[in-house]
Amino acid sequence: MRIELKKKETGLVQIILALFFLVSFVSCTKDMVYNQYVPIENGAWHKDSIINFKVSPSDTISKNNLYVTLRNNKDYEFSNLFLIVGIKFPNNYQIVDTLEYEMTTPDGRFLGNGMTDIKENKLEYKTNVTFSMSGDYNVTVQQAMRRTRDIDGLIHLNGITDVGLQIEKLN
To answer: How many CB atoms lie within 10 A of CB 163?
Structure first.
């Protein structure tokens, strides 16, 4: 049995589909406060390279979640990742955290999204944050990786292609 739509019905179906995709897109992005990536030159993140994000939120009431986002390729050779992440508030108060994230499953497969050689990871940093002061907030991200039993950190961390910051407003 073959179903044929009249020209008028086909147009209506197309309009309904277009509205569905528009609503889906808007609902997925309306809570995004900030989303920025910085590429890592040659996929080798230098230990002294501090990635800086300047955020000037206009909403001083809503709660937000902050995520460090990054992309890695097959050259990343570790199962975890250590980062030093800091926030400098408009009044010059600072918070600095040393964070560890899992990058692979126990059998060595990379975590994250992506069907290609690049995996994208969304790593939770802070939850329920209110930017209560007006002004600029500076968020910094630095790699802090070292090999087991080594005192000195890695000079170059291979396999990280981009580092980002994402801020989402909570409903």
So the answer is: 22
